[in-house]
Amino acid sequence: MIGRTVKAVSPLLKHREQTPEETSILEVARNVALQLDIPNLTLNSVLFLEYTSAGRSVQPVPSDQPLLGPGHSLLLAKCMMGMLTTDEWKPLIASALIFSRKLKPSLRRKALSNVALPVILVGVAEVVALQFFPNQAYRGSLLAIGFTIPSLVLLFAE
Q1: Running along the chain, 158 residues long, what does each successive block of 10 average in pLDDT?
Q2: Domain residue spans in the chain?
């Protein structure tokens, strides 16, 4: 959940003046992004919200996990407004940025390789089975099942 990108924020919240607290948190977030060598991150606003839309569901904004929202916004839990100093926000923002901008892309690549490789192997096994056993099409299906089970084990093993 940490660092997840949410899909929708009310348009009314995007076009309002930032409070001094929000402005200082925004400045800290920009500095943290530079320190972490994330130059392409553009943050334009900080929003304190109780709930946010993540896909089709509405979920509470976690108090300990800043979220990167649409429109280059940083979403923070409304219950945390005024509770932390600007410096106390720094580690929370840093962990969200590290996860969403540095770790999440490598996790996606790993998941893709764990899913794509078994699927390709099953497809190759089907073609090979149909080449060697053209009159027995069911053998390819049995072979696919034989490859699918180890593929699922590989997918969920890590």
Answers
A1: 48 67 92 86 89 83 86 89 92 88 69 73 72 59 58 58
A2: 11-103, 106-157
